[in-house]
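Quick one: structure tokens for this chain, please?
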Amino acid sequence: MTTTAKPGPRERLLLAAQELTYTQGVGVGVDALLKEAAVARRSLYEHFGGKAGLVAEVLRRSTSEDVQKYRTTMDAAGNEPRARLLAVFDRLGAVAAAADFHGCRYLAADLALTDPEHPGHEVTRAYRRTLHGLLTDELTALAHPQPGYAADQLLILIDGLLATGASRSEDRPPAATVRELAEHVIDFRRKEDGPPR
């Protein structure tokens, strides 16, 4: 007979915060987090130093999971860079159309965390740098004339899709429009008179 070990207080806090900060936002109260995790307030301070530390750690944990999802999505699309990039937009379109989609965790955190020194901001910046690198690598492999600039544009499209996906319901979902714009960015070939490098 085997028994499954119950997660400890730290893990329960992380799981509770990962769920509640996504469904209710990072402004969710400490009491709600403690109740969901079934831990004492002391555990929050012992493991994370307070709510700010918990939020930053949840964001860090989420970014690790989400970066892996980007890599898995691109790898499933094969080796051709254009297909790998467009697979990202197809996948995000499906994610944004899901009934349980509440928007982008990272955009929401950046908007809600009004203290510029909150440790969560560095986590979201690092996440965007990582995504930028993934996109730039694919654009470079595609021989795009301006891979870094194009990666900037694709990140804006990703942010836009995730923001509008949470706030709009239309006959024409934003994912279709964003994918078309992504194709224009990816297929840009003119080296003269193009956007600045």
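The radius of gyration is 19 Å.
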